[in-house]
């Protein structure tokens, strides 16, 4: 019995000492002495520094974001790939509005051409104005193309009798118009070569830059972007074999 009581007393003493030690540790951490104040100041400084670094990271633009913005701005410039000795004349004649370089970029190709005062005869030809049986507007607006677009002066060089005969023959007119259309979009750097047209015949494009030749027609201004096509305005009307007047 005495042995058990002594053991119990010893355990109670050890427990009391442990509780006193824990209480002392708790009081030291929460005291207002210089040691406690120093810890608080360090914590506040670290929090402030972290906040400033976080704000700096949020306010800065990552390199990838900057490149994407630059690339997008380059793609949005419709005059970036223009080529041709008469592009400046085109810009002077149509400096703004739907028929300008910037304006044409907003519409599909048949619609864009209809707004360009240099392409009125071509517009009449593809929209049923020359022959009501020949209306290619939906076709041209419905896919991606490279369009070789004779300017009005090119049609004016065709004898009136021949032009009237072409307009009265819907099959011949369709053959000529679709000979000016190549599936897919091609930039000035990749357009040289032989290309099968929507007509089925092959058009030959030679040279580079301002010296590009489209069969026997020269370049007026090319690389003009529309919503679905790349346009090359040319100074002659191309005739596929068998339709030459």
Principal-axes shape call: globular
Low-pLDDT ranges: 1-43, 47-74
Give the strand line-up of the largest sheet.
2-1-7-6-5-4-3
Radius of gyration: 39 Å
Distance, first to last CA: 134 Å
Signal peptide: 1-26
Organism: Nesterenkonia halobia
InterPro entries: Adhesion/Biosynth-related, FAS1_dom_sf, FAS1_domain
Protein name: FAS1 domain-containing protein
From the structure above, extract its key features.
seven-stranded mixed beta sheet, 245 residues, 14% strand, 2 domains, FAS1 domain, alpha+beta
Characterization of this structure:
- With 245 residues, the protein is of the alpha+beta class.
- The chain folds into two domains: 50 residues, no CATH class; 156 residues, FAS1 domain (Roll), CATH 2.30.180.
- It is 49% helix and 14% strand.
- The chain has eleven helices and seven strands.
- The chain has a seven-stranded mixed sheet with strand order 2-1-7-6-5-4-3.
- A hairpin with a 2-residue loop joins strand 5 and strand 6.
- The N terminus is likely disordered.
